[in-house]
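Troubleshooting: if your tokenizer reports a length mismatch, compare your output against this known-good record of 186 residues.
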Amino acid sequence: MTVRDAAATRQRILEHAQRQFARHGYARVTVKGVADAAGVSPNLITRYFGGKDGLFLAATRVEIPVEHSFGGDRSSLGSRLAASIVKRWFDAPGEDPLLVLQRASGERPEAAEALAAFLDKSSLEPLHRYLRDSGLDDATARSRAAAIDAFVLGVSTRRRVLRSELGDPAELQEWLSTTIQRLADG
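Known-good structure output:
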């Protein structure tokens, strides 16, 4: 097997694992089920990921490019963040690694810790810095960032984890935009 084939096989396994973890949670997913869906032997999952826990950790690596939402004036922060959030939620609704982590956080302490650490590093802290750099004092910037973070996580949990309908994308984006902006403005 060539390196390119190994990389493609690993990626295919990850894609199937992300889908299954997002749809069924950690407990109901099996190595054999992922292997069957990916068309590989379960031994390859052990070889590439060390087993189910390693596969889960690899399938839940999350990246959110929030920095592009911070390029601009604070008066339009809500619309930029809302557009980014709605795009993420509607582009791959059942396969988002962040959704996988959210759903698994109730089952797996390491998933809850990974989600909290990710949100602190990739969402809360950059938002805090942006608000501080936009002219707010540090304490105000921190509390407004925490409010925005809690609001978005709450909406995400309610509409995605608890499997309520997301609704119309344009209406959702408008509502998120208005609410996030209110929180940013205090």
